[in-house]
Amino acid sequence: MSRVGPRIASLVPSVTELVVALGLRERLVARTGFCIHPRDELRDVPKVGGTKDVQLDRLRALAPTHAIVNVDENRLEQVQALREFVPEVIVTHPNAPLDNLALLQQMVAAFGDEPGVAERAAALRDELQRELALTAARPWPACKVLYLIWRQPWMTVARDTYIAAMLATVNWRTLPDVTGGPAGAARYPVVDPAAPWLRDVQRVLLSSEPYRFEAKHLDEARRLAPGAQVQLVDGELLSWYGPRAAAGLRYLRELAAAA
């Protein structure tokens, strides 16, 4: 009798991309509408709502054996509901580029029996370690940055988020100097346009996601932090973990080298 493989529901965009990179596309039975990479390979994978509003009835009908969730991306009450009908719920929570190594270990622990998964995970691990070493080998000048993810209201990232930790690898320290805790809205604080710390910002980074900042928003951001240089950045490369982490480090080194 042939072995029945896992039926994976990935409710985390970064991890959906990782699942495919590990060679598990044929095991993927559900994704969210925000799971868009790699686009061609995901075209026929059923969508079950968004990361914050998973359609539980639709997901139940797809009979997943595994659901992959994330502390930041998915609501706790929905994760608890998943446990009622999904045999294995895998909770992820990378908070720094180095945490991708633990994420890869999670995937191997769950799916390492599938052909090629362990080997592909090892290749991703080796690539990430090379990029981490290259980034750490260079003395980067300190820079105080404001990383904006939303407008009306302006929103940024706390220092204990993945994005802030990524920026810190090139000595770009996010302002305000606050932590948000393990979960919740405090991890992505609203910016008070009158806050005195805005005078200390040297560089404003306008992310391409979740709010899609464009060139038309540059002047508005300059008024928020008049003494800062303002630029658009690729939010996927700076905030997505999994297979995009190594490329994100390369991209960040290019940004810092050009500063």
Helix content: 25-40%
List the strand order in the largest sheet.
2-1-3-4
**In angstroms, what is the radius of gyration?**
19 Å
Helix-strand sequence: EHEHHEHEHHEHEEHEHH
Give unreliable regions as ranges.
none
Distance between the termini: 60 Å
Q: What number of domains?
A: 2
**Into which percentage range does the β-strand content fall?**
5-15%
CATH topology descriptor of the largest domain: Rossmann fold
Mean pLDDT across residues = 96
Q: Identify the CATH class of the largest domain.
A: Alpha Beta
CATH architecture of the largest domain: 3-Layer(aba) Sandwich
Structure annotation, total helices: 10
Overall morphology: globular
| SS-based class | alpha/beta
Largest sheet: 4 strands, parallel
Question: What does the model show?
Answer:
The chain is α/β, with parallel strands linked by helices. It folds into 2 domains: 127 residues, Nitrogenase molybdenum iron protein domain (Rossmann fold, 3-Layer(aba) Sandwich), CATH 3.40.50.1980; 115 residues, Nitrogenase molybdenum iron protein domain (Rossmann fold), CATH 3.40.50.1980. The strands form 2 sheets. Strands 2-1-3-4 form a 4-stranded parallel β-sheet, with helices on one face. Helix 4 links the parallel strand 3 and strand 4. Helix 5 runs antiparallel to helix 6 and helix 6 packs parallel to helix 10. The termini are far apart. The mean pLDDT is 96.
